[in-house]
Amino acid sequence: MNCYKCGCPLSEKDFCTGCGADVGTYKSLIFLSNQYYNEGLERAKVRDLTGAKEKLRQCLKLNKVNTQARNLLGLVYFELGELVEALTEWVISTTYQQEKNIAQDYIDAVQSNPTALDGFWTASIPPFINTTWRLIPVSRAVSIWQRFSFARW
Ligand SMILES: [Zn+2]
C-alpha cells in the first residue's frame, strides 16, 4: 500500500518514509476495511447475501474507492434482484477505476440483456484482499481519501 499523499510505498511505520505524512490512522482504516471485505466475500460465497451486503457496505464506508468490494456489492444487489442498486454500484466503481474494470462488463451485460449476468456470479467473485494490502487500489484513494468524512460513520 502506498502513501495517500506522495504515493511512496509504506513501511510498517506509522509515518510515510517518503514525505513524513501521518499514515497510522489511514493504515488502520484500510486494514479494517479489508477485513470487512473478506467477511463480505465469505458471506457471498455461501450465498448469505444480506450478510454480504452489510459487510461490504461497512467496507466501503471505510474505503469507498475499493472497486473490488464495490463490484461484488453490485453482484450481491443483482442477486437480490435490486437492479438499480447494482447498476449504481458499478457505475460508481467505473468512475473510480476507468480501465480494466469488470464493472463495465456487468453494466454492458445488464443493458443488453438483464439475464446475461447469470453466469457472472461464480465466475467473477474476486479473491481475498490479503493483509499486506497489495491488491488495494490505494493509488486511486488519494483525492477521495482527503474528502473522506468521519461524519459518514
Ligand atoms: Zn508520503
List the helices and strands and how they pair.
Layout: H1 24-45, H2 49-62, H3 67-79, H4 83-96, H5 102-112, H6 120-123, H7 141-146
Helix pairs in contact: 1-2, 2-3, 3-4, 4-5
How many individual helices?
7
Can you tell me the number of structural domains?
1
CATH class (first level) name = Mainly Alpha
Under CATH, the topology can be stated as: Serine Threonine Protein Phosphatase 5, Tetratricopeptide repeat
Distance between the termini: 23 Å
Question: How helical, in percent, are the residues?
Answer: 40-55%
Description:
- The chain is mainly α and 153 residues long.
- It has a single domain (24-127, 140-146), classed as Alpha Horseshoe (Serine Threonine Protein Phosphatase 5, Tetratricopeptide repeat).
- Helices cover 55% and strands 0% of the residues.
- It contains seven helices and no strands.
- The protein has helices at 24-45, 49-62, 67-79, 83-96, 102-112, 120-123, 141-146.
- Helix 2 packs antiparallel against helix 3, helix 3 (67-79) runs antiparallel to helix 4 and helix 4 (83-96) packs antiparallel against helix 5 (102-112).
- The longest helix has 22 residues, at 24-45.
- It is elongated.
- It starts with 23 loop residues before the first helix and ends in a 7-residue tail after the last helix.
- Residues 129-153 have low confidence and may be disordered.
- It binds zinc ion (ZN).
- Zinc ion binds at residues 3, 5-6, 8, 16, 18-19, 21.
